[in-house]
Structure of Alpha-galactosidase:
Amino acid sequence: MRHFPVRTVRRRVVGALAVGVLAGAGLAVPAAAVPDTPATAQAPATAQAPITAQAPAVSRAPAASQDPSLAQAPTLDDGQALTPPMGFNNWNSTHCRAEFNEEMVKGIADIFVEKGLKEAGYQYVNLDDCWALPQRDANGKLVPDPKRFPNGIKAVADYVHSKGLKFGIYTSAGTKTCSEIGFPGGLGHEDSDAQQFADWGVDYLKYDNCNNQGVDAKERYIKMRDALKKTGRPIVYSICEWGQNKPWEWAKDVGHLWRTTGDINDSWGSMLSIMKQNLPLDAYAGPGHWNDPDMLEVGNGGMTDTEYRTHFSMWSIMAAPLLIGSDLRKVSPETFDILGNKEVIAVDQDPLGKQGTVLSSEGGRWVVTKEMKDGSRTVALFNETGSAQRIATTAEDAGLPAADGYSVRDLWQHKSYNTAGTLAATVPAHGTVMLRVAADGKWASYPPAAELGLDGGTLVESGKTATVTSKLANLGRTPAREVTTALTGPSGWTVEATSPTTAGTLAGGKSLRTTWKLTPPAGATPGAYDLTLKAAYDSSGGKAAQSLPVTTHVVVAPPAGTSQLSALPRLSATNGWGPVEKDTSNGEDQAGDGSPLTINGTVYAKGLGVHAESAVEFYTGGKCSKATAQVGVDDEKTTNGSVTFEIWADGKKAASTGVLTTADAAQTLTADVTGAQTIRLTVTDGGDGIDSDHADWAEAQLTC
Ligand code: GLA
């Protein structure tokens, strides 16, 4: 049902096709303009006054939180969006399907109130594309689709307002919107459309970029800014040009937020790629002007709850707008727990308005910190990889002053601890531990923080016994007493401690290590199994308990000789669109919807069809020597695909290509994987987002 790639292609040609339509609209059309060329490279035929000359009178004093070098452009400074906007938008859950209608929108407003989301800060209930009829009326006015909105838009806005909420709408800074049908866009109709929105009681406008006729982005977005201003109604203005013209460099005095990337979809790979594009832009965000890495997918079903918690944590630490994109009438209680986590929301909504900064990101172990108004720091320990990782930093590295101890609030556990300075956790695959750390002198009233970890045992061959070591480290200033640890496995597994599992006292800085023997039942089916490592202790700050989920894979040794990787069991697989495909290209949605693997005209019978960002892991058990494949962008994408292929052996990069595009022939990629326990085939987005990144590992073979 999702048509993003089709739409991507269309988006790139329409600007060129439809030149001329605008002549009657009185807008000059630049020669040979391409919508996805950065604004600076476009030479508009019209002479344009510099932006600053068109800007309304505003205060030029940069906010204290901003890097002065970025403060040349004044902000809108109209008192709106002083913290990132929070609310709902239907697009990610409905696209243009019929269920996007008055009933849905009202239902969401009701749920905002009933489920406490309004109270948690969610405010805007926004319509996306497809709310209108394809034609304007005789007076050039927009006409709501009577099937979806039989009582018009004002009635819906009134309903939303009656709940104490605000109402938003969508159109495009082009001749038509982005949907296949193409509803009327605002280009050349800015004043009339803005007035119509204001008359309906609109409080928020998302202004998209499709069918923009190659007109300079600044010019288009400034026109609508000025039109909105003329209405006299405060309307939050969301610029949606997908980061194509680097709006973070010029849009501070144009809109309150700007998209920094292409569209998100409900997959780990897409979310990750967007996160990585948005993280480096931290210096550009601040009160009234936010980077927008697109709307939330939490609750839409394409990611696990662990992944959705990461999505929500990272959007919050990036001070991103929090626009819920799932149909709240149908979501699970876990979804409400995630979206309603007030401690995480408080990170997003912190009035200082800083976007978190990347402190380190080695080997997919990310530490991101955010300065908070009260002087505390939020620290996200985010694990990008497919296996549990220890991620650590210190309170001082996170920006806090030296102190005897610090209080640490775990924002997902909702518990407080003390630490002598170390902030560390074993973070499950794709998980995020989110901590708020303060040098507030209150540390002694909390139990010491404990770090739980497990060495070994994540891979066990069926019928064999693995030895694992658990470690409970006291990171605090105060002793832990009556310490106990326990490791439990699924039914049928034998888990035996072969050294003490308890300690009377564990001083700060000390650890309790326990060795365990772990045996899956004979004939256990290969695959992932969940174990739990637990610890409990007492302290002067009260009792505390920790629990660490541990994933163990029962694995089979790969056969001797050369095998097709597509025929071997995978340890894990993540993909930017739909599932990783066996022996076909990536069809994007369901398993089995791909086409024959084809790179520059050559068809391959075997291999893996993936979509960036992608990672596929295999067990090699120290018995293999070589992994090799013919790699390239699949021919089903004719433009815009650009990726790199990498082969990793036990967490070390063993081989990689440079950036390969749709124009490149297949390249042979071979890695020496001698001695490795696992290998991982990774496809990155080539640095430009995941649009059209259909990548083939053709004839992918493993020699053991
Ligand atoms: C573009 C935007 C999306 C959504 C659709 C609607 O792709 O980036 O967020 O609004 O258009 O067609």
